[in-house]
Design a protein that fits this description.
The structure is a single chain. The chain has about 750 residues and is of the alpha+beta class. The chain folds into three domains: about 50 residues, no CATH class; about 190 residues, Penicillin binding protein transpeptidase fold, CATH 1.10.3810; about 325 residues, 3-Layer(aba) Sandwich (Beta-lactamase), CATH 3.40.710.10. About 35% of the residues lie in helices and about 10% in strands. A hairpin with a 5-residue loop joins strand 1 and strand 2. The longest helix has 17 residues.
């Protein structure tokens, strides 16, 4: 007797023919309910009940687009990163090789174009085959598509535990529901639409959902360019993705592939010569492993993460965090950003070079924005996202705030103390009150007691610099210190700024309204990088930059000077479209008038002098030797040298370069340290951050506007102004008008050595 033959169900026998007749009749009457429940096939009551059950089942299937990969793109359209929970790229049927369409139909549903969603002939054949001991499935491609759509919806709703798998947790009722939905689906969609949907949704591998992703994973090609052996192999994988995985089980994959090829030959989809050549082709994969998420961005992982947090924090993308995550990771979004790949590459090169040999893990960051729009062009730091031997790895962003204004996480360290880069804002208030930058003030004064009569029309200025008070048990700090001796003397406000003299900043502040300083600082977007609260300029230490502030914040603030006093909030996302091409909320320039144009021009004049003959002239190589265009900047260094800066701009680009301690509480002193083999007694802004800034700007600034800065009005620049000795009386008041002293003409260029910044 031949093996595998069961004469009881042989359709050549009388009993076999009877079974076939009853089966077909039952299918016609109740759409296979009887075949799935054998007793129902011979019991009228049971059959009637099955029919009623079947009719009560839903006939509508909501076919949402399956989960698709989201792409984050740079401004030139290049890919920064792919985001997904299921790696899938939807393609149309005409973008698929004819071989894959024929192969899938041949092996999964040879009567696809003949049935109406449920193949009764296939079901009978499967039942007979199973009864003979050869298990055979009977689900059509339409039924499989229905099952995949249902499961995809469950996954997207976070109900993965309810997913139904054939032969595992699918009951008779589930199968009947699937059949009815398949029939309804065939009435609503064409065969081509169903086949396209199936090939885009079907699972091939945990890293490949749909034919396009599978083609790229296994063969590093597109679905359109699949060869016959490749297409047959992938069509075979569908039946059991792990067992027929060509990477881990190539022998199994070949057996299944050849079975597919045989079916294609038998059904006339390929010729014998094609079949012979394909069967003779060895199973050979060319794997391109997808790298999901910002961590694998080859160019800008931290900028990518910043963009991702902006989306996940945006209520426009969902009412809660889970809904927003589904939208971003499953929605097939295309997110166009402001990132300039050339600027990013140059920035990354500079931060890497600045701290290349860095066993103590000092941080370097460089970020730029475009004045007039706020577009972030680059965001780089000297770390790797993923751990690696010898690498300084972190997932925290050195360039951005810890949280946004609504308290949502941004994954940033919140910046660092900006030091003397805050001095231009006191200088701006000086000019805003109509005072000439060539006014001489007393830089010899170092003591400011707690009862000093600061002018503050909207509050009370607090703090004191007085060693005497401190020694008496008060809360004062020591008398003001400059970085070097020789500058405790009267000098112009301009010279005090470009040489970064602390005592001149305080002598200037003694003659302006602190409320005005606060207004300017708020208007240019400066805020605490840890909690997003305003920086309280009524606290004296904040005149010298004691509150932690992010590099992105400082770059945007200085861009205000470049933009003739108009502030633009930083923006990273220019457009977002979903898988259908519909537009979703993105960002647009958000600008406001912040500083009077004439004041911004006066600050630009002074900040150019920082680089020409002030603390910035110590940067090596000097900016003047690298560029032939106007550029303005300010150096900055915290008291313990643990945070060092250069922030500056041309008319077309504003950049913040930072080097310092990014670990824990940022309490390490940048003193007696070795970086890149060079010993530093104390790191200053011009030493490491300075070259980062100058080399980057020399390379990238010319790609944007480098027009000259407009000149400030003469009354802010050349008009002689009185030298005023500040009032040293007691108490805060709002009308401190000390008597004028001597007049001082506009000074000649200073022959003295530029001072180091502190």
């Amino acid at each position: 007797m031949a093996t595998g033959k069961n004469p009881l169900f042989d359709t050549a026998t009388t009993l076999g023919k009877l079974v076939l007749f009853l089966g077909v009749s039952a299918i016609c009457g109740i759409l296979v309910a009887g075949l799935l429940v054998p007793a129902a096939a011979v019991s009228g009551n049971a059959a009637s009940g099955s029919i009623k059950f079947f009719e009560a089942l839903p006939a509508e299937l909501k076919v949402d687009p399956p989960s698709q990969s989201t792409k984050i793109l740079a401004s030139d359209g290049s890919v920064i990163a792919n985001l997904y929970l299921e790696n899938r790229t939807r393609v149309s049927l005409d973008q698929m090789s004819p071989f894959i369409k024929d192969a899938v139909i041949a092996i999964e549903d040879s009567r696809f174009y003949e049935h109406g969603g449920v193949d009764t002939t296939g079901i009978l054949r499967a039942l007979v085959s199973t009864a003979r001991g050869n298990k055979q499935g009977a689900s059509t491609i339409t039924q499989q598509y229905v099952n995949n759509v249902i499961n995809s919806s469950l996954e997207s709703e976070g109900k993965g535990d309810q997913v139904l798998l054939n032969g595992v947790n699918k009951g008779v009722g589930d199968k009947l529901r699937e059949m009815k939905l398949a029939i309804a689906l065939e009435k609503k969609f064409s065969k081509e639409q169903i086949l396209e949907g199936y090939l885009n949704i079907v699972f091939f591998n945990r890293d490949a959902y749909g034919i396009e992703a599978a083609s790229r994973l296994f063969f590093s090609t597109s679905a359109k360019n699949l060869t016959l052996p490749q297409a047959a192999l992938l069509a075979g994988v569908v039946n059991s993705p792990s067992f027929y995985d060509p990477i881990s089980n190539p022998d199994n994959a070949k057996v299944r592939r050849d079975l597919v090829l045989k079916a294609m030959l038998t059904q006339g989809k390929i010729k014998k010569a094609q079949y012979d050549a394909a069967v003779a082709t060895p199973v050979k994969t060319k794997v391109t492993q997808p790298r999901q998420g910002c961590a694998y961005s080859p160019s800008a992982p931290y900028f990518c993460d910043y963009v991702l947090h902006l989306l996940l924090n945006n209520p426009a993308y969902g009412a809660d965090a889970k809904e927003r995550e589904r939208k971003v990771f499953r929605g097939g979004l295309t997110i166009k950003t402001t990132l300039d790949p050339k600027a990013q590459s140059a920035a990354q090169a500079q931060v890497n070079a600045a701290a290349g040999s860095n066993p103590d893990k000092w941080g370097a960051a460089l970020v730029s924005v475009e004045p007039g729009s706020g577009k972030i062009t680059n965001m780089a730091q000297n770390t790797s996202w993923l751990p690696g031997k010898g690498k300084f790895d972190t997932q925290l962003n050195f360039n951005v705030d810890k949280r946004d204004k609504d308290g949502n996480d941004l994954n940033g360290i919140g910046g660092a103390q900006p030091g003397s880069t805050m001095k231009p804002f006191t200088f701006a208030e000086w000019l805003d009150e109509g005072k000439s930058m060539n006014t001489i003030v007393d830089g010899s004064k170092r003591e400011y007691r707690s009862d000093f009569p600061w002018r503050n029309s909207c509050g009370t200025t607090v703090g004191a610099y007085s060693t005497a008070e401190k020694d008496a048990g008060g809360n004062a700090a020591d008398d003001l210190q400059n970085a070097e001796d020789g500058y405790y003397k009267p000098m112009t406000v301009l010279k005090g700024l470009y040489n970064s003299i602390n005592t001149i900043t305080f002598a200037s502040a003694a003659q302006v309204d602190f409320c005005g300083i606060q207004r300017i600082v708020d208007a240019v977007g400066i805020h605490n990088g840890l909690d997003n609260k305003p920086v309280d300029m009524s606290r004296l230490p904040n005149l010298l930059g004691s509150t932690q502030t992010a590099p992105l914040t400082m770059a945007s603030a200085f861009a205000t000077f470049a933009n003739d006093g108009r502030y633009c909030a930083p923006m990273a996302i220019t457009s977002v479209t979903d898988a259908t091409g519909a537009k979703l909320p993105a960002q647009a320039p958000d600008c406001r008038d912040a500083i009077k144009p004439e004041v911004a021009r006066g600050v630009n004049y002074a900040l150019q002098e920082v680089l020409n003959r002030g603390s910035g002239s110590l940067i090596q190589p000097r900016i003047s030797t690298l560029t032939d265009f106007p550029i303005a900047a300010k150096t900055g260094t915290s008291n313990n040298n643990g945070s060092t800066w250069v922030v500056g701009h041309t008319t077309g680009l504003a950049t913040a370069a930072w080097f310092g301690d990014a670990l824990n509480d940022q309490g390490r002193a940048g003193q007696n340290v070795t970086i890149n083999g060079q010993f530093y007694e104390g790191i200053d802004g011009y030493m490491i951050a300075g070259p980062m800034f100058s080399k980057f700007m020399a390379q990238i600034a010319p790609t944007r506007s480098t027009d000259p800065f407009p000149a400030p009005p003469s009354n802010l620049l050349y008009e002689p102004a009185p030298y005023q000795q500040p009032n040293t009386g007691s108490g805060n008041n709002n009308s401190n008008n000390p008597p004028p002293a001597k007049q001082d003409p506009a000074p000649a260029p200073e022959p003295t050595k530029p001072k180091k910044d502190k």
